[in-house]
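Morning run. Coffee first, then this:
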Amino acid sequence: MEIRNIKLSKFRNYNYADINFYSGVNVIYGENGQGKTNLLEAIHICSCGRSHRTSKDSDLIKLGEEGYYISLELKSDSIYPLIEILLRKNDNKRIRINKTPIKKMGQLMGVLKTVMFSPEDLLIIKEGPSFRRRFLDIFISQIRPAYFYDIQRYMKILANRNRLLKEINEKPSLKETLPVWNAELARTGSLIICMRNEFLRLLSSYAGLRHKQISNNQESINIVYRPSVKCDDLDNREKIERQFLAALDKNYELEIIKGTTLSGPQRDDFDIILNDNDIKVFGSQGQQRTAVLSLKMAQIDIMKEQTGESPVLLLDDVTSELDLLRQNYLMDNLAGFQTFITTTDETVFKNIKDSEIHFYKVENGNIREG
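And here it is:
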């Protein structure tokens, strides 16, 4: 998988940009605040449909403008699909693939597979469960686009059920309709739990191997899934569904009082265990960074194995986030992947004798090769 060209119009601090990229390593350099990360953000949006830095699409529009446009040309298995994203203020985001508008975001998933390394990655460990769920859901959706639809469907059912719980307080007769929503929630939720369990097991296995390599066999990590719905067989969807239904039936009176659903994938979490201890509590800053690097490398391994395609790697300021040992490990594993690296010090990469490294300078929202 390879990006050939990207065009930006009124995106972040870019007025207009049209740039071709190469196989191998593309180094994006310049001072801080010039637009290096914005370029990677645009690529990430073409992959996942959303920014990794903000939940507000309006934040992506250049100050004083009415909308933005991104065009990305992709090479994949001798096919050259075109991804276009257009957003205007007070309007929904519009996405086209090969000039054909898509009706659902799930149609974008898997077209451009990416793995991003960024300073925000530490939030996977340091922050609450929502950050870990988001990381996991985007990862799975790129490999299994149908999962993205399950997540969307589940959140709609959940919103309707929560609204019903609040309305029951004022109109108790509505309680009779609750079993219908319970059944839909449990059926869709069980699909999500099964898939999360499968991919967390893969992540744990691959990240464990990577972590041993990086730490020279001094440390081990594994990932433990903490589903909200308790079930002793997370590979059995029907059993999960029954347990989910039982939890909803058991807690519905308390849920009516609180006006919200207390069980389900929206409350899932997972722990990263370092040498038998929770890394969030007991891991040092360096150990946490190493664990994140192991997770990301595991993502790459799994994507390539599951899809047969190498993802595009987006490395945002890794030279400041990783020490020299981890930087070298990462660089040694870039062969065979198209990679985009942002940095303030391009000389670190100019010392690498590799004809597949190309440089682009970004200054005040302008980008040029060289």
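The mean pLDDT is 92. Good start to the day.
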